[in-house]
Amino acid sequence: MTKHVGVVGAGTMGVGVSQAFAAFGYRTTLVDTGDEALDRAREAIARDQRFAALLGSRTPGHRVMEHLTFTTKLDDLADAEFVVENVTEDMEVKRQLYHALEDVLADECIVGANTSAIPITRLGSFTRRADRVIGTHFMNPAHLKPLVEVIRALHTSERTVRTTLLLLDTIGKQSAVVEDSPGFVTNRVLMLTLNEAVCLLDEGVATAAEIDRLFVRCFGHAMGPLATADLIGLDTVLYSLEVLLREFNDPKYRPSTLLKKYVDGGLLGRKSGRGFFAYDT
């Protein structure tokens, strides 16, 4: 039975994933390379919990924080039974992390890769536990979205799949199991939509507000594609498109020049305060 969950990477996804487990009483350890990132994560979680309390959450904020540990030491994951990896969409960064985790994690520990587009089989090849590597693609915000896309890689064992589905069920998450492919189901479709919306904006076909209003009002989407890109992070959208372009060698995944310009200029969406829309930080 899983008692200790590790979360590696204290960015937007790591913050949400750690909250999701801590809210259901799991001892949860959030790891990042620097204290500054962990301080931001701690503040973000505290803010989210205060907001949840105003909405009548049944999980008091102090209870969530009681189950959380913030650390820069991978060694603190030595007794974890399940670790969710959320680091940046950079293959070399992930390779180095997976190699480092091999020296720390218990033999039976399962690693859930929360990547946007990188094939899970490739991530498993960086380890000696390919049968215990599985894709756990949480949606943003991870502690609120009800469904997780679970990706079965080439060597993922049935025991790993069963354990993962059971664990997700205990934190109130539904699961959809899919086979391994770059971008899986969700991002293989979504990234094309987001990129095409940016192209429309770049061509002056419509404003950002009008593009999004069409999707919200005509199709019933909770938010339009450009607001969705801002929520995900424009850098993550760009990295995902670059992975899809490289993996499929299909020009339909070629990133918009405007998207690349925004990322180069530090306009990354909600996390930077401005992307296609402006946000309070």
From TrEMBL:
Residues forming the 3-hydroxyacyl-CoA dehydrogenase C-terminal domain are 183-279
Keyword set for this entry?
Oxidoreductase
Pathway it acts in? Lipid metabolism; butanoate metabolism
Annotated coiled-coil positions are none
> Record's family?
Belongs to the 3-hydroxyacyl-CoA dehydrogenase family.
Kindly indicate whether the keyword Cell membrane belongs to this entry: no
Q: Which Pfam families does this one have?
A: 3HCDH, 3HCDH_N
- PANTHER family for this protein: 3-HYDROXYACYL-COA DEHYDROGENASE FAMILY PROTEIN, 3-HYDROXYBUTYRYL-COA DEHYDROGENASE
SUPFAM superfamilies according to UniProt: 6-phosphogluconate dehydrogenase C-terminal domain-like, NAD(P)-binding Rossmann-fold domains
What organism is this sequence from? Nonomuraea antimicrobica
Give the InterPro entries listed for this entry. Answer: 3-OHacyl-CoA_DH, 3-OHacyl-CoA_DH_NAD-bd, 3HC_DH_C, 6-PGluconate_DH-like_C_sf, 6PGD_dom2, NAD(P)-bd_dom_sf
**Which domain of life does the UniProt lineage start with?**
Bacteria
Supply the name of the protein: 3-hydroxyacyl-CoA dehydrogenase family protein
Q: Where is the 3-hydroxyacyl-CoA dehydrogenase NAD binding domain?
A: 4-180
